[in-house]
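Why should sequence recovery work at all? Because a backbone constrains its sequence more than one might expect. Tight turns favour small or flexible residues, buried strands favour hydrophobic ones, and helices have their own preferences. The token representation captures these environments compactly. In the example below, the structure is given first.
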């Protein structure tokens, strides 16, 4: 069962990385006509409010539930909520999404993806170390 929970943790992290990629593609969709996902009309930014932010919040809730069963770091639990607010706020603050906001949004997505990967590696190593280390017991056989 513990193996299943770790696989679920990895799948949640992969879903988070995928949502970061989708949001990054949306934020960079107006930057250059040479991009394969170039879209000149600007309606694609609704994807962030309609799809990316709700999925980010759903992933955050899933991490909170999973944290009851396996060790999940505090940063990992907060990151989806912070990312959802950050990328959604950029669309709400600047509806026209100038070049500066596009760059900030793309940078937020890249930073969130890098942090998620780093936190996942850290959490998985922490869980593996906890399984391998012998427990400390007192003279009566009770764990400390």
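From this structural description, the recovered sequence reads:
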């Amino acid at each position: 069962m513990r193996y299943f929970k770790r696989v679920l943790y990895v799948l949640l992290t992969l879903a988070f990385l995928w949502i970061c990629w989708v949001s990054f593609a949306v934020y960079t969709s107006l930057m250059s006509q040479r991009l394969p996902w170039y879209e000149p009309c600007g309606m694609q930014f609704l994807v962030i409010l309609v799809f990316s932010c709700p999925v980010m919040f759903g992933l955050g809730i899933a991490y909170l539930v999973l944290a009851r069963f396996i060790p999940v770091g505090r940063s990992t639990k907060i990151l989806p909520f912070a990312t959802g607010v950050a990328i959604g706020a950029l669309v709400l603050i600047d509806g026209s999404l100038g070049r500066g906001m596009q760059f900030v949004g793309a940078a937020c997505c890249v930073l969130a993806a890098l942090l998620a990967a780093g936190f996942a590696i850290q959490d998985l190593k922490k869980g593996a170390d906890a399984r391998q280390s012998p427990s400390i017991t007192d003279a009566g056989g009770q764990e400390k």
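A few observations help interpret the result. The chain has a mean pLDDT of 85.
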